[in-house]
Specification:
The protein is an alpha+beta fold. The protein is built from 10 helices and 15 strands. Helix content is 21%, strand content 23%. The longest helix is centred in the middle third of the chain and has 14 residues. The chain starts with 6 loop residues before the first strand and ends with a helix. The chain binds flavin-adenine dinucleotide (FAD). Flavin-adenine dinucleotide (FAD) binds next to helix 2 and strand 5.
């Protein structure tokens, strides 16, 4: 599969391009630029070393407040091999969004491109200007809820090549081609990049955008309640992106205008919960439970899909029907993803010593927070159903006591 990364054909008049599924987004965008076309910026993910097939099948998205922003909405045609070994053309490509490949092996994808354009990107801290724009990523930093934002939009109509961009008064804007500015990968980096070095895990919550205000207030009260002065070292922020309601049955934005929230957790000490893991786990469970958020098919640990308290199956009204449809075309279930089989069979996430540290489970016994005896499994302070690994002692108090005893 990895070698299926060729460009098959293109039509610069019709603005479409047909590729094999393992081509990476960054390589595809470079080629499109050479061919005189561009990727619409609403569908370019932040990280561009992802494959076209992987993005389609996990429901990967970028951001838009005007249209559904899952990448799969750009797919106009699709060719695949079914469970009988026959090559087929798909009539309804959007049913593949978030399907994890349950209908077959994709061999070709045709995408709608757009005419070449320049992109205006701005990164800034504070302010509310970004709220007016279609494509914006917000990252509120939970220490004081300062908002960092990163936005992409078309340059103003009076923009001339080489002129200073003074649009809306921003002076931190950069204007350039979308294949250069739309996203980035770690390729060519000598020191590795943010994703590899700093971020331990990406946890994504996809919820009804109308609940965002209430959610921020609740999460604020949780982060405030730990009375941590300075920053929360393990929580790098919440990156927020948007998408209009989608009719694709397994799209994370199915049926509701959605805010996609990434909880960015910093790398911690291997084998130990992250610093303030209890706070992070509270936020995660409350968001999946009370706010009925959906996890990202390609990001979250399994526990987000297999919890008995808020089964993901109940979050997709069409889930059962589509699993049945796939099964009738593939009676032996050759392509049924293991995760879908577990969801269908109402499986539970695995429980073993240390499983909560590995983020495979939400704890129910102390041993799930092991092997360190520093942690115990505790009831959530904010939700009846949630339980979290909490430190038995506050390390700051232990250190202070140690110092006092030495004096
Ligand atoms: C650093 C980083 C940044 C990310 N940023 C974003 C982001 O901005 N937005 C976002 O939505 N997501 C993002 N993601 C999540 C990403 O969308 C998923 O991790 C996705 O799985 C990545 O695609 P991949 O190319 O690695 O696909 P893979 O993980 O290789 O594949 C995904 C699934 O598709 C199946 N599959 C792949 N190709 C085919 C095929 N041809 N036929 C049948 N089945 C196939 C695989 O078996 C697998 O089940 C990010 C992930 C990382 C690691």
């Amino acid at each position: 599969m990895a070698r299926m990364h060729r460009v098959i054909s293109w039509d610069a008049e019709d603005m479409s391009i047909t590729v094999e599924p393992s081509i990476q987004m960054n390589h595809l965008m470079d080629t499109m630029h050479e061919l005189g076309m561009s990727m619409p910026f609403h569908y370019i993910p932040i990280y561009t070393a992802l494959t076209i097939g992987g993005m389609l099948l996990t429901g990967a998205h970028s951001s838009s407040v005007e249209r559904p922003s899952a990448f799969g909405h750009l797919v106009s045609e699709l060719e695949y091999v079914d469970s009988h070994g026959e090559v087929r053309r798909e009539e309804n490509p959007t049913r593949w969004i978030g399907s994890l490949g349950m209908y077959g092996i994709i061999t070709q994808v045709t995408l709608r491109a757009t005419a070449p354009y320049k992109l205006n990107t701005t990164a800034a801290v504070g302010g509310k200007m970004g709220l007016m724009l279609d494509q914006v990523n917000f990252t509120p930093i939970p220490t004081d809820w300062t908002i960092c934002y990163f936005e992409k939009h078309l340059p103003p109509f009076w923009y001339k090549e080489g002129s200073t961009n003074l649009w809306l008064g921003f002076n931190e804007s950069v204007i350039g081609w979308p294949h250069k500015l739309g996203g980035s990968s770690c390729e060519g980096s000598q020191v590795g990049c943010y994703w590899q070095n700093q971020v331990q895990i990406l946890i994504e919550f996809d919820m009804d955008v109308r609940l965002l205000g209430q959610w921020i207030r609740e999460v604020r009260s949780i982060t405030d309640s730990i009375r941590y002065h300075g920053c929360l070292p393990s929580l790098l922020g919440f990156a927020m992106r948007f998408g209009k309601a989608s009719s694709a049955p397994l799209d994370m934005a199915y049926g509701r205008d959605t805010v996609y929230i990434d909880m960015l957790v910093a790398k911690g000490i291997p084998g130990l919960p992250a610093n303030h893991q209890d706070v992070l786990d509270e936020i995660e469970q409350i968001t999946f439970g009370k706010y009925d958020a959906r996890p990202h098919w390609g990001k979250n640990p399994e526990r987000a899909f297999l919890s008995q308290d808020y089964p993901v199956r109940n979050k997709y009204p069409e889930f059962d029907r589509h699993i049945q449809m796939a099964r009738s075309a593939d009676p032996r279930g050759i392509f049924e993803p293991a995760l879908f089989s577990q969801i269908k069979d109402r499986g539970h996430h695995s429980m073993y010593p240390g499983c909560a540290v590995a983020m495979d489970c939400y704890c129910s016994k102390d041993e799930h927070c092991g092997p360190s005896l520093l942690y115990r499994c505790d009831r959530s302070l904010h939700s009846a159903n949630a339980s979290v690994c909490r430190k038995r002692f506050d390390l700051a108090i232990v250190t202070t006591l140690g110092k006092l005893l030495r004096v």
